[in-house]
Specification:
Blueprint: H1 7-19, E1 28-32, E2 43-48, E3 51-55, H2 56-62, E4 67-70, E5 75-80, E6 83-88, E7 93-96, E8 99-102, E9 108-110, E10 113-117, H3 118-128, E11 133-136, E12 141-144, E13 153-161, E14 164-171, E15 181-183, E16 186-192, H4 198-203, E17 210-218, E18 221-228, E19 232-239, E20 246-252, H5 268-285, E21 289-294, H6 311-329, E22 333-336, H7 346-355, E23 360-367, E24 377-382, H8 388-398, H9 408-413, H10 417-426, H11 429-447, E25 451-457, E26 469-476, H12 480-487, H13 489-519
Parallel strand pairs: 1-12, 21-22, 21-23, 23-26, 24-25
Antiparallel strand pairs: 1-2, 2-3, 3-10, 4-5, 5-6, 6-7, 7-8, 9-10, 11-12, 13-14, 14-20, 15-16, 16-18, 17-18, 19-20, 24-26
The chain binds zinc ion.
């Protein structure tokens, strides 16, 4: 993938998005049901810091939903739309059917009610009401369209991702479909012997890369034509076995926002300031110092292999080998978060990376499954987890904080400022994702193990890094075969080599991108 070169305008855009988020002082929202009638009781809203929260009990009552709460476990669940949503007090994880989602701030339990951050709550409703969910920010009115049940495809959702758009098609059964075809600015997906609830699909406004969706009955079944805003790089479709959703990923070319100050409408002072900012931006992306983070250490052994190999031991050796390659062969400055078997808190690791002026952060780990052995390697970047698998890995790696004497730093993370901390990293999400993709390619070439792909999740160790940051799960300690590999010098060197080549490739790509900026 090509990397973003116009970081400054992208940053400005993200700030604008935050600024345009709801700031009204509404105290409640109203729910409009499918009959068009307004539910009687308004649903309370409250603010905490910069975040608006919605009363989940009030919402469930207005919906006349089937509710279940467990006072001891402090959980609250109700059925809404296509799934059951389960919320836990002081927790950022929401279970929706079989999927697990992460909120930017935890659910609050107060005055006998559960409160969820409003914006994330609405995003989740769009997922469970694929036949139509609308929120009118002017009048704070929520409209929900329940599934009518017509057709194999009963709903759709468009989600904007870092590198494109994910379209979810909600299906009532397993479907047979052809590989999507890209033709100029359209993508065509054909579903065999399928029908769709056209009304439900047309009620949902296309977003992201998609401008328009057209449905057509053809001999083989149903043809979906997605009209795009711009040509895309690639497109894949797959059906999730459990949810039966067909996911259509549209990977877009990076759209460059216009650079302010280049159109001659700015004052000389403003232009000068912008140029200085651009220069600083370019320095920021010059990879001259790499921070390597060997996972775990000291009293925290990490995962333990089937015959006893400790994760902390393998990660340190790989990190030292990588350091050798980067320093001796590439002449880069390298900082290790630990050089020996000692315990270091998760937030200390990124703090160190920032103060040392790191430009890349690579956290090295070994995977492990509670059930089964597992196989292969995967690379993560920081973004809320979107799958149960990613959530499991994040929960395990985050559990390290149990070893730490003071967890104050992390409690802070669960407050509103999590958003700010995550935003500091969000500037680097695109690059982190790009680096993760390179690592997967190089790992496959160097180790030949199974490529489990790039994924996203909320890792404490990546939060707060002011640089592109990834976490690599090199191989499975719960696999007899892979644990054996992890014990060998040869395999550890292969992993180090893969990461070394990844850093070089990443540098080449970011340098080209920065060159683009100065050439304009
Ligand atoms: Zn680990």
């Amino acid at each position: 993938m090509k990397f973003g070169c116009k970081h400054l305008p992208l940053l400005v855009l993200s700030l604008l998005m935050v600024a345009s988020a709801p700031s009204g002082a509404a105290n409640f929202l109203t729910l409009k049901t499918s009959s068009g009638k307004q539910a009687n009781a308004p649903i309370a809203l409250r603010r905490s810091g910069a975040v608006s929260y919605v009363d989940l009990n009030g919402f469930a009552a207005a919906l006349k939903a089937d509710v279940y709460s467990n006072e001891q476990k402090r959980t609250f669940s109700f059925a809404a739309g296509s799934a059951r949503l389960k919320w836990t007090a002081d927790n950022v994880f929401v279970q929706i059917g079989t999927e697990c989602w992460q909120l930017p701030t935890p659910v609050i339990f107060q005055d006998g009610c559960y409160w969820a951050p409003l914006v994330a709550f609405l995003e989740l409703l769009a997922i469970v009401y694929p036949s139509g969910m609308e929120f009118d920010w002017n009048n704070y009115q929520l409209s929900l369209q329940p599934r009518k049940g017509g057709g194999d495809i009963y709903g759709i959702a468009y989600e904007q991702k870092g590198n494109g758009t994910l379209v979810r098609l909600f299906c009532s059964r397993e479907m047979t479909y052809s590989a999507p075809i890209i033709r100029a600015k359209t993508v065509i997906l054909t579903l065999e012997h399928a029908s769709a609830d056209g009304d439900a699909l047309s009620r949902v406004q296309p977003a992201g890369a998609v401008e328009k969706l057209a449905l057509e009955k053809i001999a083989q079944g149903l043809q979906l034509t997605f009209e795009l805003a711009a040509p895309i790089l690639e497109c894949t479709a797959w059906q999730d076995e459990e949810s039966r959703q067909i996911h259509l990923s549209l990977v877009t070319q990076l759209v460059s926002a216009p650079i302010p100050g280049r159109d001659g409408t700015r004052s000389a002072g403003e232009s000068e300031e912008i140029n200085q900012l651009l220069e600083r931006e370019q320095q920021k992306w010059k990879v001259d110092c790499v921070v390597i983070d060997p996972g775990h250490g000291g009293k925290d052994p990490g995962a333990i292999g089937v015959t006893g190999l400790k994760e902390k031991e393998a990660t340190l050796d790989i990190a030292l080998r990588l350091k050798q390659l980067l320093m001796k062969d590439a002449g880069l400055q390298v900082v290790l978060t630990r050089e020996d078997d000692r315990f270091i808190g998760l937030n200390q690791r990124t703090k160190r990376a920032n103060t040392e002026g790191g430009k890349l952060f690579i956290s090295i780990h070994c995977n492990s499954l509670k059930k089964g052995s597992g196989s292969g390697f995967e690379t993560y970047f920081l973004k809320p987890a979107r799958s149960a698998k990613a959530m499991e890995v994040a929960l395990r790696e985050n559990s390290v904080i149990d070893y730490e004497e003071s967890t104050n730093g992390y409690q802070e993370l669960t407050e509103e400022n999590y958003i700010l901390l995550a935003m500091a990293q969000s500037e680097f999400v695109r690059e982190s994702e790009g680096l993760a993709a390179i690592v997967q390619r190089k790992m496959l070439l160097n180790t030949g193990l199974k490529d489990r792909g790039v994924d996203q999740a909320g890792f404490y160790v990546l939060v707060g890094a002011s640089m592109p940051a990834i976490l690599v799960e090199t191989a499975f300690l719960s696999s007899k075969h892979e644990e054996k590999l992890l014990k060998t010098k040869k395999f550890r060197q292969q992993v180090a080599q893969a990461l070394y080549e990844s850093v070089l490739d990443f540098m080449k790509q970011t340098e080209t991108a920065n060159h683009d900026v100065s050439a304009e």
